[in-house]
Specification:
Elements: E1 4-9, H1 20-30, E2 32-38, H2 42-54, E3 58-62, H3 74-84, E4 89-98, H4 106-123, E5 127-132, H5 135-144, E6 152-154, H6 161-169, E7 173-176, H7 187-194, E8 200-202, H8 224-235, H9 239-253
Parallel strand pairs: 1-2, 2-3, 3-4, 4-5, 5-6, 6-7, 7-8
The protein binds nickel (II) ion.
Length: 258
């Protein structure tokens, strides 16, 4: 039986409001022991903290996603800071830059990203990074803000092998999601194969990006099995071994209780 950790799931998404119990039952049956529930704004961050408080095996990350950066104000930061001190909050996230959708102006995204790295360093929490079409800018900001002091993970990694190397050198982990199972995974498979096992994580990003054979459907933590199997196959490992190693990495990065 696989023992998996889903390092990035939006259980607080409205997509799960009607059947979260069933979703969590299926996750358990599939071997998912631990789930990090991630915030995107103040509301979803508070919901993540609440879920973590109620459920065994669920931890929370709090933060403002680049899409929501434009609506964050002083009140938001006060509240996020308070939430970050609550039990079972293990990271700041998801935070970063999205230069694909540009739902917030780039200069606002950058300011909010910098501010949250500062907060993470102050609180001693790792960060969960959203990087869409912004590799170089994200990397530059991580260096300038000394994010390596707290470390963290590139969630749903979408860069090539060269960029992965730079992230690893900074001390970050690489998390792979459903796209690694897609037909056109290409360079992602090289990343999955080449990066050191002790820096690798897996995730669903549920309800988004369901892996094959569920592609196009609502994603959920139980489906992480498909991603783990694909990564294991690519590396020539047993899925059990990959699952145990990535769970161990998550435990280390997020200082999870055993
Ligand atoms: Ni996400």
């Amino acid at each position: 039986m696989l023992q998996l950790t889903d390092t990035h799931a939006h259980l607080n998404d409205p997509a799960f409001q009607h059947d979260l119990n069933e979703v969590l039952d299926r996750a358990r049956t599939a071997g998912v022991r631990t789930i990090i529930c991630v915030g995107s704004d103040l509301k979803t961050s508070a919901e993540a903290v609440e879920l973590a408080a109620q459920r065994e095996g669920i931890y929370a990350a709090v933060g403002v996603h680049p899409h929501e950066a434009k609506s964050a104000d002083e009140q938001t930061w006060k509240a996020i800071r308070l939430l970050a001190g609550r039990p079972k909050v293990v990271a700041l996230g998801e935070i970063g830059l999205d230069f694909y959708y540009y739902n917030s102006p780039p200069e606002v995204q950058i300011a909010v990203f910098r501010q949250q790295i500062l907060l993470a360093r102050e609180l001693g929490l790792p960060i969960i990074i959203h990087d869409r079409d912004a590799h170089e800018e994200v990397y530059r900001i991580l260096c300038e803000e000394k994010a390596g002091d707290v470390g963290g993970v590139f969630h749903c990694f979408s860069g090539g092998l060269d960029f992965a190397g730079k992230c690893l050198d900074l001390g970050f982990y690489i998390s792979l999601a459903g796209p690694v199972t897609f037909k056109k995974a290409g360079e992602l498979l090289r990343v999955a194969c080449e990066i050191p096992l002790e820096r690798l994580l897996v995730e669903t990003d549920a309800p988004y990006l369901a892996p094959v054979p569920y592609r196009g459907k609502r994603n959920e933590p139980a489906f992480i099995v498909e991603t783990a199997k694909k990564v294991a196959e690519t590396r020539g490992m047993e899925p059990e071994e990959l699952a145990a190693a990535t769970s161990n990495n998550a435990r280390k990065l997020f200082s999870l209780e055993r």
